[in-house]
Structure formats: structure tokens, C-alpha cells
Fold each of these.
Amino acid sequence: MEKKYPRVGMGIFVFKDGKFLLGKRKNAHGAGEWALPGGHLEFNEELESCARREVKEETGVEIKNIRFSTITNDIFKKEGKHYITIFMLSDWAEGTPGVIEPDKCEEWKWVSKDNLPEPLFLPLDNLLKKDLF
């Protein structure tokens, strides 16, 4: 029997004017849930490069001041998936968020921590439960 291992995902906080960017997921685990821009860390990819690439690919936005925050251990029991999610912090540099990948995201919006839409994607929910943000 082949061993299974967790995958490495990334969620990136993009801050602007006291708010951060969230998108409504489509066509994947967590469909209909609100998540940070992000995706998978590629082989030999630096964390900052992954954050910059994923935000640009998904939203069209450029980011700056990229830094590591924390990780969560996310077990999606129903879907049979397991991720280690790396959370990065960044600041908006330029651009207007757009739905660049309409098959993966329904919409993007700027939100504050005290006014979050629901339901939240498991990694973000797990992070908020840790009260690190």
C-alpha cells in the first residue's frame, strides 16, 4: 500500500486600509467557502515567491512586504485530504482584485477580521481558532 503524505498549501493575507482580501471558492474542496488567495507550494519554490505568484495568478494584484506568519495542520476528513498550510502576510502594492480564474473563484472582497463572511475555508478557520491573527 502506497503511503500518503500531506500536501503543502499556502494562504496569503493581503492587507490594504485595515482590511484583507478573501475569495469565495469554486469547484474544489471547500467550494462555497471563503478563503485567502493561495494555492500549492511548488518544488524548489521560495515561500515569498509562491505568495507573490499565487496572489498575482488568482487576483491580478501585486503584493509587497511579504513575510511568514504561521502554519496550520488541516485535515479535510470528508474529502480525504490533508494539508499543512503556510500562512504568509503581505501588503497590497498595486492592482484591483479581479476574478482571474473564474473556474476556481466566484468573487474577491476586502474584509475586516470583525466582519468575516461565512462559511470560512478550513485552514483559515483553524488559524482563527488559534487566535494568532
Note: The mean pLDDT is 95.
Amino acid sequence: MALTLTTCGRREWIACSAIFAGLLGAIAALAWVYTPWLAPAAVPVLAAWGWAMWFFRDPDRLVPDEPGVFVSSADGIVADITPVGPGEALGVEGTRIGVFMNIFNVHVNRVPCDAQVVSIDHQPGVFLDVRKPEAAFRNESATIRLSVTHGGRQHAVLVRQVAGLVARRIVTDLSPGQQVHRGQRMGMIKFGSRLELWVPAELVGDIRVSVGDPAVAGQTVLVAAPKESANA
């Protein structure tokens, strides 16, 4: 099966390939001129090159077609499920679900539901370990506000990309006014980070994950809207 790489990391994986190819060439030349015993030095270089390519992998996902569900925007582990109030970013009462991504997870992010992009707000910040509670509010982040149709009304849903201790660049490949679909690729965070889904109380019919559960981007259902009115 071929390894597909995300275009969001094209600059990095091209640069890595150039660097590692140069190192391998230098090792081969030294081994040829001086001693073949230098050849095993190519093994860790090849391993590092392979990991760099593997980090930017972009596998296809089987997106659920169940009406009214919100899927995870990231691979990782469900880190917290927290009620939020009207004084916070969502503007109404609701639930925030955070997913922690480590450097071994797929880092391509996906849209949680069918919606229209209202706005994208990039905020500068620090780079604390995202497992610390204050990191969710102090770290560099991008907040994507979506408009979701449910029960004949429009509701705001937020997705927040939060940079971590190692992550230094957030990529959000969306534009205000764009129509998006559940499971659609929307960017990535490089390298290790946190994704949050903020859902208003009216759309929280059933929370289908618990803290500590694994999540797969575009595939794991985090929240389902009430069945009797779900048409999002």
C-alpha cells in the first residue's frame, strides 16, 4: 500500500528528503573512499528519514454517514469533556471535547460535520505542554467557527487547533464562506498538539466517548445530536 503524504507538510518533507539524501550521499562517499565499515551509519539516517515521511502520512478514512453526528477532527486520545458557558468562546452553554495528539499520531485534521465556515481566528501564544489545563487558553491557536443547520435553525460549532510544546505551526486550509463536509481534510498541526470540538447544548444529544478513549480523525463519533430533530 502506497504512503500518501499530506500537501500541508510538503515544504517539510521535501526539505527532509533533501537533507537526508545529502547525508546518505556523504556516508556512501566516505565509505567508498575510506572504509566500508562506515556504511552502517546509513541505518539511523534511513530510519530518521522514514519517520519524517511517516509523520506526514495522510491515510483515507471511512467517514460515518449517520445523520447528526460530529466526528473527531484529530487522531489521538480524548483528554477532557468539559461543560462550557455563555461567557466563553462558543457564546452559549455547551460541551467542549479535547483530543490530545502525540507525535506518533496522524496529524491531518478533519472537519467534524457538514457546515459553512463563518470565520477563522488565529491567535498567537506560548507553547506549553497541551496536557496542562492552561495550555488550551494560552497556547497559539486557530479557532474555526462553523454554522451548522439543525432543526431548521443555524447553530455555531467551534473547532480549535491548539499548538503544543513541540508544535510550532498551525495550518488551517479553509476559508470563510466555504461549505465543508464531515470528514473533509482541513489542515494540520506540526508536531504534537490538541484539537477541541465545541458543541452547543441543543446539539448534544449523546456523547459517545469517554476520557481516555482513542479517537480517529473523520471516523470516531464524539457527539450525536438529538435523534428526533437531527438533520445537520
Note: Residues 96 and 198 are 4 Å apart (CA to CA).
Amino acid sequence: MTTHGMRAIGARDLGIPERLTDSFEGLRTAVVNGAPLAYREQGEGDPVVFVHGSASDLRTWEQQLPAIGASYRAIAYSRRYARPNQDIEPHADDQMLPHVQDLTAFLHVLGAEPAHLVGHSWGAFICLLTAVQYPQLVRSLVLGEPPVLTLLTSVPPRPSELLRLLVRRPRTALAILGFGVKAHAPAQKAFRHGDGEVALSRMSQGMLGRDTWERLSDERKQQARENLNALRAQVLGAGFPPLRDDDVRGVAAPTLLVSGERSPAYPLRLIDRLEQLLPHAEHVVIAGASHLMHEENAAEFNQAILGFLADHPSREVAEAEA
């Protein structure tokens, strides 16, 4: 074990099946809040930390690390319970706030604070909550379609909340209702009946769109399956933590909101609300992509990040260039 609890690991050290070892060789691990979290790092300079979403792990960022690592210290880690880390216990809940604590501790262990945080979906929500609770740790935010449902309703939504939302924001209410009826509720039912494949399909179609899910490579679908237990815990668990309008209005970090041109209505309506509330927000739409925009059109996604980071350098870099 080296300084700060970090060491190099091989996939076999973590009990990864033989067929998966190529994806995880050469990783390092940081012990964070008692759990070893695998990560990969490339480049030097201001730290840019990538936080993945549900049914995913650090492999989702494989097209970002070389591009961002050419100019920055790019770090992608697998969150607690994501491969190749230890799996979640059966019937356990996977709540979001412990992941916020993991992220803050991870930044400290790696000496990567403050950092530019790049998050996707569930990971983007984690990044936003980190900026709300620990603003001193965040230089900037890049948020890819975070599911900030609790800005608008409780989870699950109460009928009275949906009725009020229908009056005030009808398109948003219909998008939330549609996702619940077509994706979340069927996924819950399937998980309770032990049919993880059906649950994964329904949730993925709800977030990506049916065509995008069906076009995903077998390798990418397999990555989702390997992280299915954590998704089950999220879908059947306590849901998202509360988030108030004033919490978001108070985020001082410059923020780039990223959406996919072909994403379903549900994530798009939520990102619209964030754009209204965040005081220092920009919004970019990735052409030809859905919810997995950083994988589907990596070149445009990477270009958007690099342009945003160049416009918001650290104080040290800005002073050196002045």
C-alpha cells in the first residue's frame, strides 16, 4: 500500500472473471471510507474527475481519458459497488448521499481537490450534490443529464404533486409520468420477480430510447449487466435525496449542462429546469446522441469539455497566462 492508501492492482486481485481481465488491467485503487475503489488516471495538470452513472463503471469513460488527459490530470473511478469493486450485498439499498461522501474522500486521498467534476446521469447528480454541500472542492461542473427528479416532486411522486406540476409545467409532468409508467414501475416489478434482464431493458429504454438501447453493442450491454445488482438496489431503494431550488441557485461553480439531441423527454425536461436555476450555466446539445452522449459522440462531447475547461481555468493557470 502506497501513500494515501493507493496501490496498483490487477483485475485478478479483485476476483474478476478471466474473460473480463483485459478491461481492468493496470488500474489503481484508493481506499475510501473503508472501501477500495478502482480508478484509472492519465495526464497532468488541473484534476478532472469523471463520475459514471447507473449500470456502468469507469469503462464508460474510455474515450474521454486520452482526450482530456492530453491537457489535464484526467481521473475516472468506479463508484462503490460498481465493477471491478466489491458488489453490493443482496437486498441492500444503494443511496446517493454515501456516494457524495465517497467522492469527497476520493478527491482528498488523490490530492485532487478542488477538481473539475464531470458526471453522467446518476453520477452527474452526485457531482451536483457535491457542489451544493462542498463548494470548496469543486472548480467546475459538467453534468450529463442528471435525474434531478426531487427538484420537482418527491420519489415516488405523490398524485397531488403531479397535478400541481401538470398545471405549472405540463410537458415536464407528462415526461415524468411517462418515465414512471413505462420504465421505472415495470423495472421495479421485474426486479421484484427476479428478472433483471427485463428490468435493465425497461430502465435503459426509458433513459436512452428504445432504438438506442437496441443498437448498443453486446460489450456495452454486458457492462450494464455486470453492474445490475447496484441498479437493482437503486431502483428498489429509498430513491433520490431532496434537492431544493435554492440549493441549485446557490451553486457558484461554472456549469456545463450536456444533453443528447436524441434523448427522451424525461432527462431533457429535468435539464431544462437546471438551466433555469443554475446561476452560471451553459448548455450544449451533442448531435446524433442520446443519454449516453459521451459514448455515442465522444468527439463532440470531448470538444465541449475541453472548450468549457479552457474558458474556466484554475486561478493558478489564469494568473500564469495573464
Note: The chain is about 45% helix and 15% strand.
Amino acid sequence: MQYLLFNGSPRGKTGNSEIILNNLIEGLSESPDVSTEVIRLNRPSAREEAAQKIVTADCAILVFPLYTDAMPGIVMDFIEKLEPYKSSLHKLNLGFIVHSGFPEGKQSRAVEKYLVRLTTLLGAKYAGTVIAAGSMGLSTKQQKVIRELGRRLPETLVFDTDLIPRASQFEELSKAMIPIMKFLSKAGLLNSYWNKILKKNGAFADRFSKPYSK
């Protein structure tokens, strides 16, 4: 059984998409006669190669992050390259793992609907979408769930629907958590990572600039 795994992160090997893929592969490797290949889409030539190879795969899984609710441009470029092959994908099981720093799973539900529609347009079989919210701090529990999803995937070539909800820490903030998040925001703790990046790039003083306001 051939599994083609796509890393749709611009960060390639250094991002959380790679960590997710490594856990998925660890689970898949428990099944006999499993062959996996990882293609990182952050190289333009790799996207064309990936589009050509997907025709021969039994199952393909696309893993990518969301940046401000949007998929990376390299993922959309790859998807557009699949159009010439859509008449040959009727035997393919196509699944997705979407992750983001947003703590709530519901932040990714819009893109999930798009991926269901995309699979239909490509003529492939839908293997499900796993939403891994809060992936900036990808927990041990989430990684364990992803490994188990990989372990069970060869049984049906579809992600286990009972396991999928466990990949996100929660679907939405509870009423009890909202005041806590407001406090953390006012204290500046939620922005500490981003402030660090701004300072590193010499842009901290300009963080409230509005260059297009006039």
C-alpha cells in the first residue's frame, strides 16, 4: 500500500507539519506492506513532482498550517497543479491534516468544508480532515492521537471518525476560559512570541503602523 504524504508548510522540515507527519508515519509503520513517501511542497519543483506522483498512490495525505485562517500559497499552487490529473484520481483516497495556532478547532471548519468540496472536484475518495488546533504548542496527547490515526488508517484508508475530534484540544473556548484569555491578552502574555519575532526583525516599534490608512 503506497502512501504519499505532503508537507504543505513553507517552513519545510522545521515546522510543526513535519512533526505531525513523523507521528503519522510512526503509526502507519505498524502495518505490514506500507510504503510512505514524504514530499515537501516548499520547493516549486517538488509541487509539480507531487502532482505527477499522486496518480500512483493508494492514499495521499496533505498536511498544512493555517496562517490567519488561510492556507499557504504553496498549498494552493499544488492544488491547482492537480487539475490535469483529476480524471485519474478516482481510486485515490485523499485526506488532510490542518493545524494552526488558533486554540479552537472551529477556526478551521471553513477550510474543512473547502477540502470536502475539493476532493469531489478532483474525483477522489474523501479520507477525512483532521483539525489539530493549538499546534504552536503541539501537545504529547495530540501527537499520540495522530500516531493512532496513522495506525488505524490502513484498515479503511479513511481517518477514524471517533479519533478525529481528539486531535484538537477543544472545539471552542468554554465560558470559564474566556475571562482567562482576556486577562492573558491584557497582560501581553498572548503576544510574547510575536513580540519576540518583531524585535528580532527590527519591527517592534512599527507594530501599530498603518501604511495604507491614507
Note: The chain has two domains: 2-167, 177-206.
